[in-house]
Design a protein that fits this description.
Elements (H helix, E strand, L loop, with lengths): L24 H4 L2 H12 L4 E11 L2 E8 L7 E8 L8 E9 L12 H4 L20 E3 L12 H14 L5 E3 L1 H13 L7 H5 L10 E3 L8 E4 L10 E3 L36
Antiparallel strand pairs: 1-2, 2-3, 3-4, 5-6, 7-8, 8-9
Amino acid sequence: MSAAVMEAPAPAARPAKARAKKADATIAAAIDQARAAAQETAADFGVGEHLGCVCEGDYLATHYFACTHPGYPGWRWAVIMTRVPRARSATINEVVLVPADAALLAPGWVPWSERLQAGDVQPGMLLPTPENDPRLEPGFVPRDMTSDDDPAEWSQTRAVVNELGLGRERVLSAYGRDDAAQRWLAGPSGPDNQMTRLAPGTCLTCGYFVRLAGSLGSIFGACANEFSPSDGCIVAIEHGCGGHSDVVADDRGVTLPQAIFDTITTDPSLFD
């Protein structure tokens, strides 16, 4: 009985490596023509050494030249050239300044609304408020009342509105209050910082603490101590500093002399 012969499978054919196309000979040789076009466009930016010619397609190639301007390190001039079949000369298509891999690039574009940072508003500047700002909601203004309303009733309504602080077109929304509270608590006037941990007491028990009106007053107030770093700023009730009103120095600023009792002089009026 003959033994079966096992044949090893033939090795899979390796894909042929894609060969880089060579630039058209006429275009590749037109270095001086490409340089002249780059110099005409570059003006004062300067055109340096020739960096090579890259084939972009049939009868289409790009010559690269270094840019010698000190403000554009790593950039290069790209001169795109083409040739009509059977033509003896090349034609300039476009000249552009392009960055190489290690080129110094400008930072990515950031919209104005995202570039604005806290505290950017300076004297004389106007900051438009978005119409759909989630931090605000419609308030109560006098034009909401018609001319036929009872003047006496309107007077009472206006007094209540002004007392509540609603006589404005827009007021803080619940989102706006929460956003402000989180920002203030996370800031230097919040409870979680070194100054508070070393303070003798919290702002809630300090005589210089002035509470805010409204719902934010349950957590925040203003500091009225001119010697405190938080003077005139919003502080949390759990914030604290070394200028607490309960801290009293043992030594008084002025030392008063001992009282003197006169036991010699008499007052004649006492004997009348």
